[in-house]
Amino acid sequence: NAGVTQTPKFQVLKTGQSMTLQCAQDMNHEYMSWYRQDPGMGLRLIHYSVGAGITDQGEVPNGYNVSRSTTEDFPLRLLSAAPSQTSVYFCASISATVWFFGPGTRLTVL
Amino acid sequence: QQQVKQSPQSLIVQKGGISIINCAYENTAFDYFPWYQQFPGKGPALLIAIRPDVSEKKEGRFTISFNKSAKQFSLHIMDSQPGDSATYFCAARGNAGNMLTFGGGTRLMVKP
């Protein structure tokens, strides 16, 4: 089992560009979520999904879109990147009381 | 507004010492309190967790103490080792939507 995989590992964007961060899990979990990690602020929830076709906003959703067409995949889209979106992004797949995190994507927006 | 406040932000402990990290929360609807450990370049991983009906939970060198009336909980690492050097996050789960709220993190360095 690969667990939770994320691609790419690193990305540099220019302001205004768009991109999709990929997340996949092979544990057949219904719940998945996206967090961003910034120094001193812990991990903040961007969007989450309780199953295929069902998504909802978290604490910091502005500038991000998600969709969940399959149980396995939960991509995060940046519509028009801004420097404030420079961060490390983590996808999590959730089983009961355990959040399984992927290795993260380090994004820099210039 | 951070619903889970964590302190200190950084901590340096000598090998063999006790590391103590504290967290406080506001929302009395939180029903599950995990601690996550994160090594550089990796995602956080579950270390230990507790429910509010228990005052203490111990797993090896790691202990959570929970004070429901004070809305505080803490992580104690006994006999701290250099391999424990990592960032630690406390968290709390709301009882709706399976959402986890994290504290700001503590960067622990254990000196040999």
Summarize the entry for a quick read.
Chain A has about 110 residues and is an all-beta fold. Chain A contains no helices and 11 strands. In chain B, about 30% of the residues are buried.
How would you describe the overall organization of this protein?
The complex is a heterodimer of chains A (110) and B (112). Chain A is mainly β and 110 residues long. Chain A has strands at 4-7, 10-13, 19-25, 31-37, 43-51, 54-57, 64-66, 76-78, 87-95, 98-101, 105-109. In chain A, strands 2, 4, 5, 6, 9, 10 and 11 form a seven-stranded mixed sheet that branches. Chain A has a four-stranded antiparallel sheet with strand order 1-3-8-7, with no helix packed on it. Chain B is 0% helix and 54% strand. In chain B, strands 2, 4, 5, 9, 10 and 11 form a six-stranded mixed sheet that branches. In chain B, strands 1-3-8-7-6 form a five-stranded antiparallel sheet, with no helix packed on it. In chain B, a hairpin with a 4-residue loop joins strand 7 (62-67) and strand 8 (72-77). Chains A and B meet through strand 4, strand 5, strand 9 and strand 10 of A and strand 5 and strand 10 of B.
